[in-house]
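Why run this: before we spend reagent on co-expression, it is cheaper to look at a predicted model of the complex and decide which construct boundaries make sense. The entries below are exactly what would go into the expression plan.
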Amino acid sequence: MIAIACDHAGIDLKPHVIAVLDELGIPYKDFGTNSHESVDYPVYGARAANAVASGECSMGIIMCGTGVGIGMAASKVHGIRCVNCTDTYSAKMSRLHNNANMLALGARVLGSELAKDIVRIWLMTAFEGERHARRVGMIDRLDRGESLE
Ligand code: RB5
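The model came back. C-alpha cells follow.
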C-alpha cells in the first residue's frame, strides 16, 4: 500500500501518479488534499509520512508546488527518508543506495511524463543493502538523536 498526499499546488500531478500506480497494479491510500483550495503542505506531508512510519503503508509519494516543503515536512517524521526528485537517476539511486521510503515531487517543476517516469523507476527499484545498509543505519541513528562521532 502506497500513501499519497498533496497540497493545492500539487493536486494536478496526483492523477498522473495514480495512473502509474494503477498501471503497476499497486494499491494506494489517498491522504488528500482533494481540491485547489489553499492548504498547508506540512499537514498532508505528515499524514502520509505517519502512515509510512507506522507501517500502514510501505512507501509514500507526496506532491506540492516544488516537492520541497512537503518533503521537508515528511522527513521530520521519525523513520522517514524522503527524497525530492527532479530526475530519474536520483530516483533510482535514492532507492538503490539510500532506501528512500518517500518520494516528493514538484507539480510546478516537473512535466507529467517526467514525473511518471520518476515514479515508475522509484517504485520498481529495490534497495541494494550491504555497505549502503550501514550508511542508512547511520542516517537512522541521527533520526533518533544519536551522535555518529
Ligand atoms: C504553495 O504555494 C507552495 O509553497 C507549496 O506547494 C510548496 O511548493 C512548498 O514547498
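Residues 41-54 form the longest helix (14 residues). DSSP finds six helices and five strands in the chain. Bring this page to Monday's planning discussion.
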